[in-house]
Amino acid sequence: MNNQFSIQNSRFPVAPRTALVAMSGGVDSTVAALLALRDGLDCAGAVMKLHQSDGSDTEDAKEAALKLGLPFYMLDFSDTFTEHVISAFINAYRKGRTPNPCVACNKNVKFGRLLKEARDMGKDILITGHYANIERNGSGRLLLKKGADPLKDQSYVLYTLKQEQLANIHFPLGGLTKQEVRSIALEAGLENAKKRESQDICFIPDGDYVKFIIEHTGETTRKGRFVDVHGKDLGENRGVVCYTVGQRRGMGLAMPYPAYVLELRPEEDTVVVGKDEMLYSKTLYAKNINFIPFDKLATPIRARVRIRYRHDEQPAVIRQTDNDTIRVDFDEPQRAITKGQAAVIYDDDVVIGGGTIM
Asked: How far apart are CA 247 and CA 110, in angstroms?
């Protein structure tokens, strides 16, 4: 299959000639590099060393770069990753929030430090294997849009991108489906064409984030109490970090109805539980906002909002309440709006922006 992206007819005012390709060892980043080469770009590959469990992926990335004949760099960004992703992840859970570490990684590591590294190397653009698209509108503003594959679209975790970043990055896979990407890899004889995708947080491969927090900090969780919405004591909890809003399993409570986590109060070591219908709300506030088609929201707009990665976008009215906060009022109540997750605003396939749910 031919690459659907043409450098010569792209959104770039001047066609880029050189690129640094972020390579993870997986099929997506490898095919992104292959398509960039087919477009005539002079490419180098780079893998980021981020945490202790990424050793095998580093070797796979190196082998993929060698297969494609690319110069290869191993960049140790573990300090940046620890500060902006791991530490932020742990601190969020301690505060009763449920963070999305991919958002923090994209903002601070991939399109923060790695993009700076690419520019310092003299590369025209940074290329990654994300499933998303970047286009320029009629006024010259750059837009972030969904990827063509609805099952792989990663625009949700890219909403923090700013104009300067969008102007210096490219996503060759934006117009492709995952099946098409694997077909390209198979046709090219790439060894990672059938490599299994990781479904977990990259630095917690077994998915046990509570164990990770304990091992990373050397601190045990501080036990507290379960209470109902009236404050009635229901028993001992294992620590606020062990729970997230909407959770049902793992509480060990004998209740006359199915009990769900409604609220976390870390300052009191308290977990509030109640019935499923109590999880629904029509309003949220989000901070640390970023808008892409414009700098600020002058008047309220109607759009669709996603409150977690696999959440279906829902119609809502969005208004900016101050320089760094938005209010979202949904047409219909939404289940388990969770502090720490991202609220991302869409107009059809265009990402308007978003923020962190308060």
From this structure: 31
- C-beta of residue 321 within 8 angstroms of C-beta of residue 297: no
Same domain, 288 and 258: no
For residues 346, 349, 351, 356, the Cα torsion angle rounded to the nearest 10 degrees is 50
User: Which residues carry out catalysis?
Assistant: 105, 202
Total-model pTM? 0.94
The yes-or-no verdict on residue 284 having pLDDT over 60 is: yes
Which tens digits make up the pLDDT trace of 75-111?
A: 999 999 999 999 999 999 999 999 999 999 999 999 9
At 248-264, the pLDDT tens digits run 999 999 999 999 999 99
DSSP three-state, residue 313: coil
Q: Is residue 206 included in any domain, yes or no?
A: no
Report the alpha-carbon distance of residue 149 to residue 28 in Å, rounded. 13
How many residues does this entry show for the chain? 358
Count of domains observed in the chain: 3
Q: Which residue type, as a one-letter code, is found at position 47?
A: V
Round to whole Å and give the CA distance between 8 and 31.
Answer: 20
| Domain co-membership, 141 together with 24 | yes
Q: Which residue has the tokens 């959440």?
A: 311
Say if residue 124 is in the same domain as residue 241: no
